[in-house]
Specification:
Strand content: 15-25%
CATH topology of the largest domain: Beta Polymerase, domain 2
Order of helices and strands: HEEEHHEHEHEEHEEEHHEEEHH
Radius of gyration: 21 Å
CATH architecture of the largest domain: 2-Layer Sandwich
Number of domains: 3
CATH superfamily of the largest domain: Beta Polymerase, domain 2
Strand order of the largest sheet: 5-7-10-9-8
Oligomer: single chain
Number of helices: 10
Length: 260
């Protein structure tokens, strides 16, 4: 006699399966040692490389090949001018603001990139719960993610938008660092934290051994704990040129201008 399925197994069965991305193109790229790597471009514009650099860091120089970049950009999300996307993001943030304690626009919009492909918004729930805010956000477009704590939609204008919850105001600054980016700036900060026996994420700067929260309320507090100055979001894409990640040094920021 067969046993009836448990509630857990029934719940698992109801979840939709992830769509497997189709390989759109395979491009051979010659490395510095003469090795040939078959770089794969997926249908959504993302790129995969079989070399060790990509396997361990999810990035490598083969992805910078002009043919690979052209193939990736032609299939990825279309980038829009900053002003067009910023206006939509401001409307979305204002629509959920009455339900939240804090709401802020993140990502490339906060860094004021001239061309933007999507919208990232973070919030701390207030009078409404996280699930209620996410459900409200999903009414503004076509939902593409059906999780309990994160909302992802495609707006009628064709612009993708993601809503990310922050569990407490004590880690609001760490969440801002994480969701503002860019990716290589965040990686540099995490490497620095790791060398001190800490770990840094959107959940705060935490001591690895004891799980004690060291900093996280503001960006300045997190960066001060790492002995780094606060860097304006508009300069974070060029953080290596700004030389603010030198070990043991608090470098004075120069205003952007000639030779910067």
């Amino acid at each position: 006699m067969k046993r009836p399925p448990s509630s857990y197994s029934l719940k698992r069965r109801k979840q939709p399966k992830r769509k497997r991305l189709r390989v759109a193109e395979t491009i051979p790229v010659v490395g510095t040692a003469g090795n040939v790597y078959e770089v794969v471009v997926l249908e959504n514009g993302k790129v995969r490389c079989p070399c060790k650099g990509f396997r361990y860091r999810s990035e490598c120089r083969h992805l910078l090949d002009p043919e690979v970049r052209d193939a990736s950009s032609s299939r990825g999300p279309t980038k829009r001018p900053y002003g067009e996307v910023a206006a939509l993001a401001t409307w979305l943030a204002g629509a959920i603001l009455p339900c939240c304690r804090k709401v802020k626009i993140m990502g490339s919009l906060r860094r004021q990139r001239p061309m933007v492909k999507d919208i990232d918004i973070v919030f701390v729930p207030g009078v409404a719960s996280t699930q209620q805010v996410v459900n409200l956000f999903r009414t503004f477009g076509r939902p593409v993610h059906h999780g309990d704590s994160m909302g992802a939609i495609v707006t009628p204008a064709g612009i993708a938008a993601q809503l990310w919850p922050v569990e407490a105001e004590e880690v609001w600054g760490a969440a801002q660092l994480h969701f503002t980016g860019p990716r290589d700036y965040n990686i540099s900060l995490r490497i620095r934290a790791n060398r001190r026996g800490w770990k840094l994420s959107q959940h705060g700067l935490v001591e690895r051994a004891s799980e004690r929260l060291i900093a996280g309320k503001t960006e300045e507090e997190v960066l001060a704990a790492l002995d780094l100055p606060w860097l304006p979001p508009t300069l974070r894409d060029d953080h290596r040129r700004a030389k603010v990640l030198r070990v043991g040094r608090r470098t004075r920021l120069r205003p952007p201008g000639k030779g910067f």
